[in-house]
TrEMBL record:
SUPFAM superfamilies: MFS general substrate transporter. It holds the Pfam family MFS_1. Residues 398-408 have a biased composition (Basic and acidic residues). Residues 417-430 have a biased composition (Pro residues). This is MFS transporter.
Amino acid sequence: MIAAIAPVGALLLSVALLLTGNGLQGTLLPVRASMESFSPLSIGVLGASYYIGFAIGVLGTPRLIGRVGHIRLFTAMVALASVAPLAHALFVAPPFWWLMRGMNGVCMASLYLIIESWLNERATTENRGAVFTIYTTVNYSVITLGQLLILADDPVKFPLYALASILVSVAAVPVALSRSPQPAQVVAARLPLSALFRVSPVGAAGCMTVGIANGAFWALGPAFVLQSGLHVSDVALFMSATVVGGAVSQWPFGRLSDRIDRRLMLMISCIAASASGVAIVLAGMYAPSLVIPAGFLFGVFSFPVYALSVAHANDMARGADFVAVAGGLLMVNGIASVIGPLLASGTMQVVGAAGLFAFTAVSHGVMALFTLYRMQRRAAPTPEEKTDFVPMPAHAPRLGDIDPRGEAPAETGGPPEDGPPSPDGPGPDEPPPEGEGRQAAA
């Protein structure tokens, strides 16, 4: 394990610092917005602004890297990202916060792209799986730490905003001092969304559900806790418990899905996530002390949905470039992450705090029904046709590059020239006929 970490240690340290600062902001800003009496819709727009900026960053960063290079762009984006939390503290007004949150999304997407490109270059065939696992573990661990840092001071006071800025600023140091050569030019690779839904309706719909439901959770979860009559300390514990639940469940859920129809595991996860959302609503109304345990269960069942959906889509890819499929799924997730906070905040505006997790419960319930419908329509891939499950967070823009499932070369290096399967061929979510098996990574 040490041998796998050594070549990428500086990059992982930068990731840890960046995500700690960003995790702190992700909880701090909705809490402060609630304390400043922002409406639920304003808080929802705040969350959506981040994802809009993130999508812009993903699309625009490759061109900027081509113009100025990785190091200069990384330095510029760190500078801008460190400005955002300070600006939030200096001027409290919804439109200004929306603008700053969007700018932060652009910066974080660019920083992710640069660091993950470096990780991809430094990882080898022998250690790629270990690097990916460590990277995912770091993601969940430091986001939890960042959320807990809100307990260090009053969210209305300046120190927490300064701390978030410091963490992001210091993240530039390990990369700037690294002797690793700059990676190759970032090239965006993704399937058209229409082709993606043809390749795997369940995989694409699952990533959309995660964006809608979990995007709403990240944007409005802190506001829900405060509006339920709990305290700022409970916000930190609730958000952290949810992330921890998601971290501990990914591997067992994934390994079980390698042995049974992955869609069945996805449906069970969505049903349980829907039930957990209802449990959070009831706890918030009648037993606030149970909100945090219910949040843990919500994380256990809702967070693996993304990785399960990606794994199923990869099973059905039929020779399409895995990186292109992963890029398309992330784009679906990003678009849905903009929509989710807006819809959930509107629901909260009408029915109150309970509207958030009522919304996530309905979202997961609809996904469970859709998965059941698709299971009746198409047969499951055989175990030999499946790729291995890999735990992953849903917020990083180039996970496909370092995912060990992408090691096997694709037949064309991109989407098949003839496009998605024809109407006369195997349908969506249907494995190819015997003798035409997919290329699966070891």
